[in-house]
Write a structure and sequence with these properties.
2 copies of one chain form a homodimer. By secondary structure, the first copy, chain A, is α+β, with helices and mostly antiparallel strands. In chain A, about 35% of the residues lie in helices and about 25% in strands. In chain A, strands 1, 2, 3, 4, 5, 6 and 12 form a 7-stranded mixed beta sheet that branches. In chain A, strands 9-10-7-11 form a 4-stranded antiparallel beta sheet. Strand 8 of chain A pairs antiparallel with strand 8 of chain B.
Chain lengths: ~300, ~300
């Protein structure tokens, strides 16, 4: 096989109280990529009309990730990658991570799966460096592993996949710009110990809730007393969306990544639909363009299919 | 039945990275208490010769806990409690919690187990208030529930029992005084966000390690970058004990409660024994009196047996 189709899903990083450590993969939306081995060594890139992605491999997140993989591979090899981007850059839904992760998972498939998932995370972190200047793994990890993932430590990298019960995820992406750098800068460098204690109680509760299939505990633990109070200021309608969605039965939720997308988790599909309706109402009233998704946690992460 | 014998075990609060939220019960040491219903309403208290405990119920941790239980019970009732204290007060091993928890679990048994474990925690928190001025539940909760427990939130009280794989616990109690109030005061009110993130990665890892029976992950997560660097200064020999025990194969450990006891967790009994030998060596050399225990996590917590 020398040609594959790749579905590289959107991801939610900074999962409420799990700032910088917890993320999950969504079932949808996902980027569609096509990838093939080619005779001449090196990387060529193309993309669908919707987004004008860089074609120089060093400047392209998928390209930079593949370069890292090719260096580890050691022998001369060539890939062509075509990216049909469906996850809007700047949405807070891991658009760059999808391209980075998709490219290395696809390449690994074409090479006979010689690299581990952890290797692939390391390669794809080079794509995140191109996108944001930082080698973070918050989105790449759930994208590659699927499901809910914990990054206990980034240096050294320590990834813990967490089983979780079925959950519906409703996402609204208000079409405003929140720069990751602004979202970083707005955070205080120091936090109150008493808030930190509350936060780690909630993180411990959320992880327990996932592993014990305890929806009530998950709901009670979906509280962020440190990051959200600061960052939510950058997202019009945030408090209203969150409160109304919880009133409608959602377990809880928060800012996806560094925003502006907001997500809510629900136990039932019907609740997830109600939550979508609430999100639409809020942004209709505010006169802000938006896009919504009703989906589930994507247990598989990046999916690869052989192409004829 | 109107008479019971109670074994109320020592507990470890502030479980390394789980400051204020994670604790565990030990199999030993434990206080031995005898308790009986008596005709006259009210509480009478006696204790063995080793420690001179207050006999006025309001001033005694077991008495104060029982008073809270009796208020909830509503009808006139009388208890006599005899306490044979085996857990040294001021050891950092939950001595006061053992008396408080033991008394309410015993009383509940004599009354036909009409109260829930959570009720009992609430009653026993009144004992902790007498002991330290604060209604904390860090030691009471594992003492009553057994095993490893998470207190996600104290107000409102949200207790999560956590399953954990078998673990050996080695404890050394250097016979020095560390006042809980000093150990509190020495802490900074603010912490660096980057340290807090490291801490909650470790907490999430530790909880996952317990629930997934992953000894390696437990070991990697037993790291406290916030409290221990400050409090360990109050405990001579701490760094040496910890480093040498880890070199000998212990998974990790730290300060028990607010000290001065130090504990280490091990997967194997033989490692736990080696760890004890190391602890002894260090305090022999330092010329500080000490007491050691090699035990396991106590899965049952307070145990009650009918007495003839």
């Amino acid at each position: 096989m020398n040609k594959v189709t790749i579905h590289a899903p959107a991801t939610i990083a900074n999962l409420v109280c799990g700032f910088d450590i917890l993320g999950l993969a969504l079932e949808a939306p996902y980027d569609i990529m096509e990838m093939r081995l080619k005779e001449e060594p090196g990387i060529t890139l193309s993309s669908s009309a919707a987004y004008d992605l860089p074609t120089n491999p060093e400047d392209n997140v998928a390209g930079a990730s593949l370069l890292a993989l090719m260096e580890a591979y050691g022998k001369p090899i060539g890939f062509h990658v075509h990216i049909d981007k469906q996850i809007k850059p700047g949405s807070g839904l891991g658009s760059s991570a999808a391209s980075s992760a998709g490219a290395v998972v696809g390449a690994n498939h074409l090479l006979g799966n010689i690299f581990s998932k952890e290797d692939l995370v390391r390669f794809a972190m080079n794509g995140e460096k191109v996108a944001s200047g930082v080698k973070h793994a918050d989105n790449i990890t759930p994208c590659i592993y699927g499901g809910v993932t914990l990054i206990r430590s980034i240096f050294p990298l320590d990834i813990v996949p967490l089983a979780a019960p079925p959950l519906y995820v409703t996402v609204v992406h208000p079409q405003i710009e929140v720069k990751t750098s602004d979202a970083r800068q707005i955070l205080r460098k120091e936090v109150l110990l008493k808030d930190a204690i509350k936060q780690w109680g909630n993180i411990a509760g959320l992880v327990s809730g996932f592993l014990k299939n305890d929806y009530g505990l998950i709901g009670r633990s979906l509280e962020d007393v440190i990051i959200e109070p600061v960052r939510s200021i950058l997202i019009p309608g945030f408090d209203e969306v969150k409160q109304h969605c919880k009133d409608a039965g959602a377990l809880g939720g928060g800012i996806s990544g560094s925003g502006p997308s907001i997500f809510m988790l629900s136990e039932q599909a019907s609740t997830a639909q109600k939550v979508e309706a609430i999100m639409k109402q809020v942004y209709e009233r505010l006169g802000i363009d938006y896009r919504t998704y009703v989906t589930t946690i994507g247990s598989a992460g990046v999916r690869v299919e052989p192409m004829c």
